[in-house]
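ok so dumb question maybe but i'm new to this and my supervisor (M.) told me to 'just get the structure for Ionic transporter y4hA' and walked off. so i did the thing. is this what she meant?? sequence i used:
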Amino acid sequence: MVRLCRRYWSVVLPVLGAAVLAVSWGHELDPGPAVLVGAMLIGAVLAAVHHAETVAHRVGEPFGSLILAVAVTIIEVGLIVTLMVSSPQKSASLARDTVFAAVMITCNGIFGLSLLVGALRRRVAVFNAEGTGAALATVATLATLSLVLPTFTTSEPGPVFSASQLAFAAGASLVLYGVFVMVQTVRHPDDFLPVEGITAADDGHEEPPTRRQALWSLGLLLIALVGVVGLAKVDTPNIEAGIAAAGLPQSAVGVVIALLVLLPETIAAVRAARRDRVQISLNLALGSAMASIGLTIPAIALASIWIAGPLMLGLGATQMVLLALTVVVGALTVVPGRATLLQGCVHLVLFSAFVFLALSP
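this is what came out, is it supposed to look like this??
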């Protein structure tokens, strides 16, 4: 049975997640069952991303990237909306905290870890500065439009957008994300491939799955997504109670969600860096940050029509300092097209500072 689960984990986990959801739905969970539900939630996230990657590989670009990004965004939005519906007043800043955490995790945590692994393997991590710089510039613009400007607008009191401002930010996010996907996959794909002489036709990927495999993955993806959103709903009271019992601020909920959603991307990025594919690792990091803002903000803006309570998107002073430092350091790292251990460690220290200040503001 153990060997079977190891071989078919991507099939077993969605089915088990759906079964656990059916049994636990509508019940208040004790600590033991809550831990089991949390473990199944993590498993469902991993399985969902795995099947999204399989479908994306079969479909090809540019639609493959969109499928993967939309699947991950559904997970993130599902978790955010579930918590916001359960406690609207407590979760007014949850979308902001989650998206900002995703930016810090990807642009410092995954980014720095990829550079560190690449530099340890080859002394110098080499990547394509043109594509990586374009991705970083897009992430910086999206983050500023969606997370920084609400703090300074005056149409509404507090760090919130008015309805028209929120609509503009959502539309601008979709436009920038769509244009970037087109540039990355259609217009200038070579800017986002490793620089060691690899072309778009030979990027180290395996053969695409068969049509039957893709259809199976599509069905299991839908099951996994239902499991993710449902299990998050079931475990919401326990997550909030655990964070409160630990004496952590409410913003820690957003950090937990972002860490959970980005776990598969982190694993994939480290694996790529170990195979001397640092560029692929950086694509995963910045692409995840871009999808987190470019697709999550519009989805949350749409969901806010039906969710009672305010939607706080503006960052505080400490968060804006970390974001500005991340953008500046990221630009200095990207421009040369090569990085050493130092650059990787700098980004990881910035990530550590984010985590520390999120838990101890």
